[in-house]
Amino acid sequence: MTAVTSTHDDVLNSFRVHTTYSEPAPYAAAFDGLTTDVGKICAVVQGLLLHMWWIGENTYGFTRQNLINEGRDIAAEISLRTVEARLELILATNSCCLSTPRNVRARVVSNCRDYALMLTSILRHQGVAARVRTGAARYLIPGRRRLEDHWICEFWNERDGRWQQVDAQIDGVIMKSLGLPFDPTDIPAGEFLASWQCHEEVVRQRVSPREIGFQPEPCGIAYTRYKMLQDLACLTGQEVVPWDGWGIGGPDGGNHPEDAELTSVMAALLEDIDRPEILQKARGLMATHDRLKRPEGHNPGSFQLEWLGG
């Protein structure tokens, strides 16, 4: 994603190109012949992955501990960073075509970023402009409007001339549990807020800092800095894992004299990211700015089961 971007078509074309994270590599042929209907592609993804937070007796009839007792290393499954690595595990376990739903218990334990990335990868393989976005959703906690950390996929709807937002993790079980009143393959405006919109909510005091982010930390502005770094990374070719962060989005975010101004710069870039010159500027800053560029040798580490609690 380093080509010069000067037109709207250049912007779209940049999101048709695979990144290191979305590239299916030797397993690309597994995507051949899949449906091009977005809702049905989501069903394919749901037949391969199992969301870590939703595993339970009341949802799928078993617990994470049941899987661990069966010898599954679910932390290692969640830690897989690339589509290639996830496809390798999926196909090693069951070599059937991807459109064949796996037994629920045999699906690869994943998180919302992984659903979004898998959908993005399939769409890019089909020549569709698609990208992973991160921010927060209003609809993940029934009965509350708390902004809950989340990741989704956006694809360019050619007919409507817009980015259509899709929550690929919402299968029938989750849909019923949440009682969603809308189609998760076309999320209504305001239900998912991209990182810069989350930041605006906090800055304009439309949401309490404790009602957005993680508990106890990060929340409020610390959370939105962290999310904007991740969002910019995704939009410039690095679909990071949810626990990854560095520089202004890392543990020392906010501690440097320039961080306050840079936070505003990130928000402004993200708000206008589809303008060719803005996307080009974002790429440049993510590659060169000391507080934004990924440090050489940086490793986010593996997922830790204790983060799941319980």
Descriptive overview:
The protein is an alpha+beta fold. It has one domain (8-296). It is built from eleven helices and six strands. The strands form two sheets. The chain has a four-stranded antiparallel β-sheet with strand order 5-4-3-6. A two-stranded parallel sheet has the order 1-2. Helix 9 crosses helix 10. The protein starts with 7 loop residues before the first helix and ends in a 22-residue tail after the last helix.
- The rounded distance between the terminal residues' Cα atoms is 41 Å
Strand order of the largest sheet: 5-4-3-6
Q: Tally the helices: what do you get?
A: 11
Describe the global form. Answer: globular
Portion in beta strands? 5-15%
Tally of individual domains: 1
Number of extended strands = 6
Describe the biggest sheet?
4 strands, antiparallel
Order of helices and strands: HHEHHHEHEEEHEHHHH
Provide the low-confidence segments as ranges: none
Structural class by secondary-structure content: alpha+beta
The pLDDT mean sits at: 96
Helical amount: 25-40%
The Rg value, from CA coordinates, equals: 19 Å
Task: Write a short abstract of this structure.
The chain is an alpha+beta fold and 310 residues long. Helices cover 36% and strands 10% of the residues.
Can you give keywords for this protein?
310 residues; alpha+beta; two-stranded parallel sheet; 6 strands
